[in-house]
Amino acid sequence: SAVISQKPSRDICQRGTSLTIQCQVDSQVTMMFWYRQQPGQSLTLIATANQGSEATYESGFVIDKFPISRPNLTFSTLTVSNMSPEDSSIYLCSVMFGLNTDTQYFGPGTRLTVL
Amino acid sequence: AQSVAQPEDQVNVAEGNPLTVKCTYSVSGNPYLFWYVQYPNRGLQFLLKYITGDNLVKGSYGFEAEFNKSQTSFHLKKPSALVSDSALYFCAVRAHRDNYGQNFVFGPGTRLSVLP
């Protein structure tokens, strides 16, 4: 099975700064997604990362706050901009393999704490 | 709109006893149903899924789940719990043939504690 990695695994950041999270897969994938898991909460989809075009954002999430890149079929980044303590969460990338597949596989997550 | 309910925040079971983690869903059309497990400081691991076919599906680590269309449920089960099964369990649903990702909805999670 494919290996999905995220960097950094955790970070502590100051209010007003930005953090870029990387998601790397060791094989090509068709779909990549970014989720947020706030403390004690379930997962909320932030956006679908589209290769070579702008990401598709869910209601309540905007590009200025969460810019996403996906330059190829194995890599994506999520930036959390102008952070506030409310952004403290676990951020997870997930992938799907093949157009007709149905299962999402998740990376290990990035635990972000904003002071 | 799709939704997933996990009515129990916490389930406690003694090691060696059978366990059940409940999930009910609401979706238009035929559902794709999933169970994931999250261990502390880890991402989500895929356990099993129901797409079509037999209502009883078997997955990783001895887990199984039963799809019940009339009750719109997809309860996770294991005949004999292990202490190492202690984790956070998420049920998820995706409507058949909908856009990938946008309609993948997760339940609130159930924390399973297996007591030695």
Provide an overview of this structure.
The complex is a heterodimer of chains A (115) and B (116). Chain A is mostly beta strands. Chain A has a domain at 19-98: Immunoglobulins (Immunoglobulin-like). In chain A, 0% of the residues lie in helices and 47% in strands. In chain A, the strands form 2 sheets. In chain A, strands 2, 4, 5, 6, 9, 10 and 11 form a 7-stranded mixed beta sheet that branches. Chain A starts with a strand and ends with a strand. Chain B has one domain: Immunoglobulins (Immunoglobulin-like, Sandwich), CATH 2.60.40.10. Chain B has strands at residues 3-5, 10-14, 19-21, 24-26, 31-38, 44-50, 56-58, 64-68, 73-78, 87-95, 104-106, 110-115. In chain B, strands 2, 5, 6, 10, 11 and 12 form a 6-stranded mixed beta sheet that branches.
User: Which of globular, elongated, flat, extended, rod-shaped describes the shape of chain A?
Assistant: globular
Count of beta strands of chain A: 11
Number of helices of chain A: 0
Question: What is the arithmetic mean of pLDDT of chain A?
Answer: 93
User: Which percent range describes the beta-strand content of chain A?
Assistant: over 45%
Distance between termini of chain A? 37 Å
Helix share bin of chain B: under 10%
CATH superfamily of the domain at 19-98 in chain A: Immunoglobulins
Q: Work out the strand percent of chain B.
A: over 45%
Q: What is the CATH-assigned architecture of chain B?
A: Sandwich
| Classification by helices and strands of chain A | mainly beta
CATH first level of the domain at 19-98 in chain A:
Mainly Beta
Overall domain count of chain B:
1
From the 3D structure, determine the CATH topology of the domain at 19-98 in chain A: Immunoglobulin-like
Helix fraction of chain A, binned, reads under 10%
The rough form of chain B would be described as globular
* CA-atom Rg of chain A in angstroms: 13 Å
Name the CATH homologous superfamily of chain B. Immunoglobulins
Based on DSSP secondary structure assignment, what is the total number of beta strands of chain B?
A: 12
Provide the residue-averaged pLDDT of chain B: 91
